[in-house]
C-alpha cells in the first residue's frame, strides 16, 4: 500500500511537472507572439505617420543629402579619406535638430507611447562610371553608427524599417552614384508592462489552473495518506483487541476445564479460587466490551448529565482516589484558581481525567502535576507528566479512535487506543478543547480548556 502511494505520488509529481512545463511553454509562446504582434503594430503605426520617415522635414533631409554630396565630392577629389567621410556623416550638425523633430512627431502622433529611436547608417557605397562599388562604409547596424535619434543602445530596440537611398551626380565629367542604407530602430518605454497588461487574462488563467491542479493533487494525496493511516490504525485495533481478548478467554477455557474435574469441585478453597478467576476474567471481558461500546458514540450522541460543580474540589477528589490506586506516583497539584463553578458532567469527566492520569503512569511517568488557571477567559486544566513523551510527528492522530503510538504488533503496553479519543469526545461535548505539548523523552502535557 505504502509503495503504491509512493508510486502514485511519484507519477503525479512527474505529471504535474510536465503539465507546468507545457503551461510555461504555452505562456512563453503567447508572450513571444504578443511581442511580435506589438512590434508589427508599432511598425504599422510609424509607417502610417510617414511613408518615408526621411521626409519628416524635407529641409533637414535635403541638408543631409547635401552633406552626403559634399563629402562624396571631396572624397572623389581626394580631399577626404574614408574615415573623414564616416566621421563627417556621423557627427553632422543637424543631428540634434532632426532628433528633436522626429521625437515631437512621435509624441504628437502616438501620445500613449513613449518612443525612443535611432537611425543608424549601415552602408555608404560609391559607384563611379558603373565601375565596381567603392565601399566607404558598410557595417551591421550598431548604435555607434547613429545618424540621429535618442536611443543609447539597440539592445531592446527593434527594426522598424530600412531606407535605401540612391543619389546620382556628376563631378569633373564623371558620373557617380551613391548608395546609402540606414535603418530605424525604436524602443517603446515600458513595453514589457504593456505586453504583460495584454497578457493578464492568460497569465491569471494559467496560474489559477496550475494552482487548482496543485491543490487538488495535495488534497488527493492527503486524503489517500489519511485513509492509509486510518486503515493501519483499524488493523492495529483488531490486533490489539484480539490480543486483549485472548488472555481472559484462554484463562476462562482452562478454568472451565479445571472445574470439570471432581477433585477440584470437592475442595472448597480451590473451587472458590477458580470461581474468583472466572469472575475476574469475566469482568475484564465486560470492561473491554464496555470500553468499545462507550467509544462507539460520537461526541454529539453523548448524553451529558451536567451539574454545577466546584471544579478544584472535583479535581482534588479525583487526585485523592488516584493516589490510593497508585501510591507510588507523586501526584502534585498547582491550582492558580479557586472555587470555580463550572457546569460539568461529573461521571464522564472523571473517566476522561482518569484516562489521562492512567496514561501518564502507563507511559513511564513518576511525577504528575495537575495545574489550573484561567487562559483567555477559559478554565485551563493541565496534566503534566515526566513520562516517555510523544514524538511531534505522532501527535496529529493522537485523539483519533484506535490510534496508538506503538504500531503493528510491537506492544509493550496494553491498550486499545480509545483513552484519548474518549477524552477528546467528552471535552468536545462540553464545548471545550484538548491539546498536547510533548516531545520524545521530554514528558507530556495535556491541556484541557473548558468554558467558564
Ligand atoms: P492507549 O490505549 O494506547 O493508551 P490512548 O488513546 O489512551 O490509547 O493513547 C493513545 C496513544 O497516545 C498511546 O498509545 C500512547 O502511545 C500515547 N500516549 C497517551 N498518553 C501518553 C503519555 N502521557 N505519555 C506518552 N504517551 C502517551
UniProtKB/TrEMBL annotation:
SUPFAM superfamilies: ATPase domain of HSP90 chaperone/DNA topoisomerase II/histidine kinase, Homodimeric domain of signal transducing histidine kinase. It holds the Pfam family HATPase_c. PROSITE patterns: HIS_KIN. GO terms for cellular component: plasma membrane. One of its GO terms (molecular function) is phosphoprotein phosphatase activity. The keyword S-adenosyl-L-methionine does not apply. Keywords: Kinase, Membrane, Phosphoprotein, Transferase, Transmembrane, Transmembrane helix, Two-component regulatory system. InterPro entries: BphY/WalK/GraS-like, HATPase_C_sf, HATPase_dom, His_kinase_dom, HisK_dim/P_dom, HisK_dim/P_sf, Sig_transdc_His_kin-like_C. Its EC number is 2.7.13.3. The chain crosses the membrane at residues 201-225. Residues 240-452 form the Histidine kinase domain. It comes from the Bacteria. GO terms for biological process: cellular response to phosphate starvation. It catalyses: ATP + protein L-histidine = ADP + protein N-phospho-L-histidine. This is histidine kinase. It comes from Flavobacterium cutihirudinis.
Amino acid at each position: 500500500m505504502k509503495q503504491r502511494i509512493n508510486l502514485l505520488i511519484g507519477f503525479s509529481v512527474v505529471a504535474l511537472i510536465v503539465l507546468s512545463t507545457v503551461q510555461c511553454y504555452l505562456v512563453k509562446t503567447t508572450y513571444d507572439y504578443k511581442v511580435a504582434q506589438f512590434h508589427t503594430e508599432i511598425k504599422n503605426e510609424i509607417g502610417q505617420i510617414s511613408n518615408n520617415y526621411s521626409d519628416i522635414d524635407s529641409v533637414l533631409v535635403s541638408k543631409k543629402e547635401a552633406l552626403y554630396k559634399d563629402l562624396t565630392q571631396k572624397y572623389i577629389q581626394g580631399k577626404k579619406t574614408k574615415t573623414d567621410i564616416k566621421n563627417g556623416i556621423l557627427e553632422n550638425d543637424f543631428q540634434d535638430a532632426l532628433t528633436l523633430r522626429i521625437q515631437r512627431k512621435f509624441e504628437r502622433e502616438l501620445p500613449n507611447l513613449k518612443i525612443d529611436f535611432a537611425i543608424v547608417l549601415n552602408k555608404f557605397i560609391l559607384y563611379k562610371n558603373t565601375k565596381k562599388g567603392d565601399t566607404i562604409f558598410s557595417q551591421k547596424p550598431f548604435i555607434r553608427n547613429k545618424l540621429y535619434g535618442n536611443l543609447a543602445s539597440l539592445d531592446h530596440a527593434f527594426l522598424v524599417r530600412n531606407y535605401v537611398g540612391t543619389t546620382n551626380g556628376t563631378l569633373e565629367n564623371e558620373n557617380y552614384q551613391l548608395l546609402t542604407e540606414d535603418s530605424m530602430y525604436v524602443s517603446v518605454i515600458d513595453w514589457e508592462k504593456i505586453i504583460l497588461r495584454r497578457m493578464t487574462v492568460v497569465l491569471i488563467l494559467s496560474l489559477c489552473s496550475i494552482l487548482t491542479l496543485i491543490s487538488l493533487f495535495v488534497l488527493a494525496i492527503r486524503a489517500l495518506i489519511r485513509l492509509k493511516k486510518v486503515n493501519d490504525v483499524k488493523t492495529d485495533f483488531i490486533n490489539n483487541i484480539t490480543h486483549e481478548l485472548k488472555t481472559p478467554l484462554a484463562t476462562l477455557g482452562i478454568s472451565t476445564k479445571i472445574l470439570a474435574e471432581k477433585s477440584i469441585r470437592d475442595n472448597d478453597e480451590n473451587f472458590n479460587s477458580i470461581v474468583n478467576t472466572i469472575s475476574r476474567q469475566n469482568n475484564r471481558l465486560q470492561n473491554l466490551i464496555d470500553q468499545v461500546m462507550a467509544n462507539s458514540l460520537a461526541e454529539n450522541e453523548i448524553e451529558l448529565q451536567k451539574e454545577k460543580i466546584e471544579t478544584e474540589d472535583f479535581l482534588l477528589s479525583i487526585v485523592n482516589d488516584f493516589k490510593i490506586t497508585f501510591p507510588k506516583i507523586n501526584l502534585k497539584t498547582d491550582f492558580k484558581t479557586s472555587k470555580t463553578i463550572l457546569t460539568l458532567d461529573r461521571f464522564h469527566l472523571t473517566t476522561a481525567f482518569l484516562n489521562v492520569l492512567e496514561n501518564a503512569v502507563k507511559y513511564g511517568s513518576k511525577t504528575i502535576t495537575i495545574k489550573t488557571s484561567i487562559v483567555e477567559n477559559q478554565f485551563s486544566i493541565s496534566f503534566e507528566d515526566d513520562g516517555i513523551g510523544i514524538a511531534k510527528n505522532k501527535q496529529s492522530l493522537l485523539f483519533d479512535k484506535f490510534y496508538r503510538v506503538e504500531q503493528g504488533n510491537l506492544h509493550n503496553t496494553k491498550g486499545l487506543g480509545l483513552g484519548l479519543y474518549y477524552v477528546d469526545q467528552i471535552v468536545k461535548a462540553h464545548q471545550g478543547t484538548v491539546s498536547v505539548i510533548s516531545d520524545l523523552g521530554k514528558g507530556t502535557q495535556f491541556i484541557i480548556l473548558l468554558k467558564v
